[in-house]
Specification:
403 residues, Peroxisomal Thiolase, Chain A, domain 1, 2 domains, twelve-stranded mixed beta sheet, two-stranded antiparallel sheet
Length: 403
């Protein structure tokens, strides 16, 4: 594939707002998971979530507009502006609005407004509906509202691909950039943790619960029993390398290769095919770090391990593996925050810890990073896994070493 580089990063997360605080939180092993107090969890087995705290969008969005925007749109607009500022790009000056695109991954965003809108219709009738709610009931509201606020007039799409949603959006933006559909793409993923979504995951018995040692996210740990739902957004700016070099932009990294596979019947083989595809496209034999999709679910973590061992049978146990989901929880589009963390890991030469990893699981016999690890990081294998039959792998690289 043509050379696509990342020149800007914007993050709003449960461990920090803005890329610097986000990175500091990850390095410190800051736990963004806590008891949910914004809605009632009394009848539910699970009680915790990874919520964004201290978010004040007024610095990025006019106060009169904030009340018209759902929380996910506020996240997306704010993080996108952060990313553009980080890339030193001003739409309309450095790049034409028509040559700027936005492709975001967004799964269950809009549920809060949808529930309020339909509840009002049922309880009060159609004559007493709040018209402000309706435009923000759809998954593409975040990308659409961000394009309006930022003046983006190029390609505008929203991607939903189960737990690989942000990765799918990221790769779609790469392909659109290579095809010259635009010169700059704003891309990544956004999640909003709503009461309805939380109740849904809980009823499916997929979330973690307290069995005597606390309710927590513990990827790859023997005693893990489910994921902790989270929210937040990670947004990146993509450009063709030639354009970034021409304007002397800071380059966080480049996309070396990617792989996509399907089939729910043999998930480990699907994971292995995605990884092998990414390595083949990237022409890589050396991986410095694996950003794992492990989310504290017993089956997913084991499937990922098996897939890694199938794809990298000779040296996977020597490669450090870590999962920030131990701190920020799991979301349909949490891959956006993960890719942001990957880029910062390459910039700083540091691998963040997997907190809550105490009891090694024989089914997850990987080199899990328990404490932060200072090491040169030039290549990262990022895995995305959804056990309903979607597997993705992205190979990211940095050619100029680390700072």
């Amino acid at each position: 594939m043509g050379t696509v580089v990342i020149t800007g990063v914007g993050v709003i997360s449960p461990v920090g707002i803005g890329k610097d605080d986000f990175w500091k939180g990850l390095c410190e092993g800051r736990d963004g998971i806590g008891e949910i107090t914004t809605f009632d969890t009394t009848p539910l087995r699970s009680k915790k979530g990874a919520l964004v705290k201290g978010f004040t969008p007024k610095a990025f969005i006019p106060p009169l507009k904030i009340r018209r925007l759902d929380r996910a749109s506020q996240f997306a607009i704010t993080a996108a502006q952060m990313a553009l500022e980080d890339a030193r790009l001003t739409i309309g000056e450095d790049v034409a609005p028509e040559r700027t695109g936005i492709i975001l991954g967004s799964g269950f965003c809009g549920l809060v407004n949808s529930e309020a809108f339909h509840r009002g219709q049922v309880l009060r009738g159609p004559g007493d509906l709040n018209p402000i709610l309706f435009p923000n009931t759809v998954p593409n509201a975040a990308a659409s509202n961000a394009s309006i606020e930022l003046g983006i007039k190029g390609p505008n799409s929203t991607v939903v691909q189960s737990f690989c949603t942000a990765e799918a959006a990221f790769l779609f933006a790469c392909r659109q950039l290579i095809a010259h559909k635009a010169d700059v793409f704003v891309t990544g993923g956004v999640d909003e943790l709503s009461p309805m979504l939380y109740r849904g995951w809980n009823e499916l018995r997929q979330t973690a619960w307290d069995t005597g040692e606390g309710e927590k996210s513990a990827p790859y740990d023997l005693k893990r029993n489910g994921f902790v739902p989270g929210e937040g957004t990670g947004i990146m700016i993509l450009e063709r390398e030639v354009d970034a070099l021409r304007r002397k932009a800071l380059v966080y990294g480049q996309i070396l290769g990617f792989g996509i596979a399907g089939s729910a019947a043999h998930p480990a083989e699907g994971v292995a095919r995605a990884i092998s595809g990414a390595l083949k496209r990237g022409g890589m034999k050396t991986i410095d770090f694996i950003d794992g999709a492990g989310n504290s679910s017993p089956r997913l973590d084991a499937v990922e391990t098996e897939g890694l061992m199938l794809a990298l049978p000779h040296h996977v146990r020597d490669i450090p593996v870590s999962s920030i989901k131990s701190m920020v929880g799991e979301g349909i589009a949490s891959g956006g925050m993960r890719i942001a963390a990957d880029l910062l890991a390459m910039e700083h030469g540091f691998i963040t810890p997997t907190i809550n990893y105490e009891y090694p699981d024989p089914l997850c016999g990987l080199r899990i990073v328990r404490e932060g690890l200072k090491a040169p990081v030039k290549t990262i294998l990022h895995t995305g896994i959804s056990l309903d039959g979607t597997y993705m792998a992205i190979l990211l690289g940095r050619t100029d070493g680390v700072s």
